[in-house]
Amino acid sequence: MQLIIAEKPDLGRAIADAILPRKSSKKGYIDGGDIIVTWAFGHLFKLKNPEDYDPALKQWSLSALPIFFEGWGIQPDQEKLEQLNLIRDFLKRADTVIHAGDPDDEGQLLIDEILDYFQYRGKVLRLSTNDLTAAVIQKAYKSMVDNSVMRSLGEAARARQIADFVVGINYSRFFTLKNNRTLSVGRVQTPTLGLVVARDALIDGHQKIVYYEGLIHTHIVPAFSSALRVKLKEGHPLLDEEGRVMDKKALESLLAGFRGRSVDVTVTKKLFDEAPPLPFNLTKLQTAVFQRFKYPPEQTLSITQSLREKHHLITYNRSTCQYLNDEQFAEVPAVVSAILANLRASIPELDTKRKSAAFDTKKVGESAHTGIIPTAVRKNLSELTEAEKNVYRLIAAQYLAQFMPPCKKETTKAAASLPDGISAAASSTRVVDKGYRAVLPHKDEAPDEEASLCNIPEGNYPNRPIEEVGILEKETKPPPRYHLASLGEDMTRISKYVTDPRIKQLLLAKDDGKEGENGSIGTPATRDAIVKKLIQREYIEVKGGKVYSTQLGRDFYNILPQEVKTADLTAEWWAMCEDIKAGKSSSQVLHQSVLESIRKLLESGYQGAPLAHGAPGKNGSGAEVLGACPLCGKPVHMGKFGGYCSGYKDAQHPCPFRFSETQYGKKLTATQLKNLLAGKKVLVRGLTSFRTKKKFDAFLQYAGKTSEKGYATLEKPDFENVPQKKQ
Ligand SMILES: [Zn+2]
């Protein structure tokens, strides 16, 4: 029996549709007789936790750092066990396995780890496809290679996965313990926080500069007065280094000299075509949806997930690529007519033979997916939610635009020379023929004050009198605050903020050939989750659609060492992973470098730093740590009513541990709770007896037990040897 294991259910179904003549769908697989098609749901395994190696590591302690294990193992993801068991049983019967993970290093690892875990020893072939189109799958099926030649890709992905995990646990534990509050560090998470912190600093520290521009007003043609902007020649004494005029008075007197003079004006025109924009990738779609409908990026992701998986109306939705391949061009007529039927529209100008720049198999290149476009599925759109309809229409319009004529535009320029090398000019652009813009609702461009220029015929207009002069007051502006979509976009091009030329070049090289990614951190599939983590941990917050760093986020970011603050790790690791893929290096090299920087940090003598105190966030971020939980080892946070285990929200094993702040009618301090949790005897004065209501002083001590509800219980109060209160 031949067993095909696809990365995801939709790829599995598409493979079955493309190659199985007869088939029947079963739970978790498709039965094609001699061929079984099944699938994973992303990674079916997780890396083992430190405590799976050594239960003592549940307790966070500095002496245990750095935490690292050679050949770090994996364990099944309990939530996906059913599918994993199904695959295990098929593997026992399979004589050939076809590995159909996505054609990137993560996809390679995803199926390889299943085969390794069950020690599959039979033949394995690699089916590499980036497409759900039948023709592409059939072609890939005919050109499979032996999986052994692809293995090093998966090794690189594993090396990076372990390195990420090691950075996360070691840095997070270190900074938490040193600062006595729960803090979290991540290779992608922390530089993303850095983007917001840096942007906020630019905005908050911005000092606006007012500068001036001169204008001359003249009638080029009798019908309209035109305003031309005065441009001083480079090196003019009125210009500062940035080419701006700051001295308003001096400019006024310069302009006054022009009033009443005549100038020769030349008007030129240029016609040009504006091609339709490329189909969306996920990030671009999230931005467009946010601008149009104000849905946050995460919502767009879940809408597209439903459009793809539930309604089958669009192609792979987490794509980074904006290009389409030749097979998709062959399907254009079917897709276009399905869209028109779904939208109940008819667009006579559509020409399905028109091949826009989006159809470029070379540019799809090695990216695992193509642009997000509609499929040939016909559907009554009333089955969709309003939000789904909106997003589908947007994706459809961007696709249909590919088959429309370009938008024709015309730019008119007016130029004049003034004495002393000074010039004046104005320009204006108008749409002559809408072309693709007829289907692509376009933001209306701001009304152009020089619109009347377009009405002036090309030619020379000598001796036009300067009737009036004027001054435009301008000011420098800080960059805009991030919103969630623009933060996501900047994650795709973090290299533009990198000053180290080597790191910048590595980041750009990493994304070479990946359209829409220009020196990025994270992947489109993970970026939203990372930003969400930053929000949950209260390092950033979203107010009125804008993203702000919190005081805690800024303070924490500022105390971190350079290597985790920036995209450096992403850049360096990429280079090392490339060597692993090429067989020139091993995962040990990467892991040694990670361990080295952790050791450097441990030996740095770092003693913690003042962080924003104040109320801990509602998710416990930044909360004061009282000690380790006696039940599960996680940090115990100081909350509103005393200590509580930070593991209380664990999906699988929520921890109930609590340490009540009030004992015998007396509110204890955080320091007292800390000492109690550490097992010390603590003298507390002014307790109240439950029975007699009388006040008393006593030593309290934690009994090491908890009540049924998880509350720490105390030993009986100890009245012996209570020192006399000084009078
Ligand atoms: Zn606990």
Give an account of the 3D structure.
With 727 residues, the chain is an alpha+beta fold. The protein folds into five domains: 142 residues, Rossmann fold, CATH 3.40.50.140; 167 residues, Topoisomerase I, domain 2, CATH 1.10.460; 135 residues, Topoisomerase I, domain 3; 122 residues, Topoisomerase I, domain 4; 90 residues, no CATH class. The protein is 34% helix and 21% strand. It is built from 22 helices and 27 strands. It has a seven-stranded mixed β-sheet with strand order 2-3-4-1-7-8-9. It has a six-stranded antiparallel barrel with strand order 10-11-14-13-12-15. β3 and β4 form a beta hairpin. It is globular. The site of zinc ion (ZN) has 8 residues, from loops.
List the ions, cofactors and other small molecules found in this model.
zinc ion
Number of strands: 27
Strand order, largest beta sheet: 2-3-4-1-7-8-9
| Domain module tally | 5
Number of discrete helical segments: 22
- According to CATH, the fold-level topology of the largest domain is Topoisomerase I, domain 2
CATH architecture of the largest domain: Orthogonal Bundle
Portion in strands? 15-25%
What is the terminal-to-terminal distance?
90 Å
Shape: globular
Give the integer mean of the pLDDT values. Answer: 90
CATH H level of the largest domain: which superfamily? Topoisomerase I, domain 2
The CATH class of the largest domain, by name, is Mainly Alpha
The helix content, as a percent range, equals: 25-40%
**Unreliably modeled segments:** 613-617
Topology of helices and strands:
Layout: E1 2-6, H1 9-19, E2 24-26, E3 29-32, E4 35-39, E5 45-47, H2 50-53, E6 74-76, H3 81-93, E7 96-100, H4 105-117, E8 123-126, H5 134-142, E9 145-146, H6 151-179, H7 189-204, E10 210-221, E11 224-231, H8 248-256, E12 262-274, H9 282-293, H10 297-309, H11 326-330, H12 332-343, H13 361-364, H14 386-400, E13 407-417, E14 423-433, E15 459-475, H15 484-491, H16 501-510, H17 524-536, E16 540-543, E17 546-549, H18 551-559, H19 562-565, H20 568-581, H21 587-602, E18 625-628, E19 635-639, E20 642-645, E21 658-660, E22 662-663, E23 666-667, H22 670-677, E24 682-688, E25 695-700, E26 702-706, E27 712-714
Helix pairs in contact: 1-5, 4-6, 6-20, 6-21, 9-10, 9-14, 9-15, 10-14, 16-20
The structure holds zinc ion.
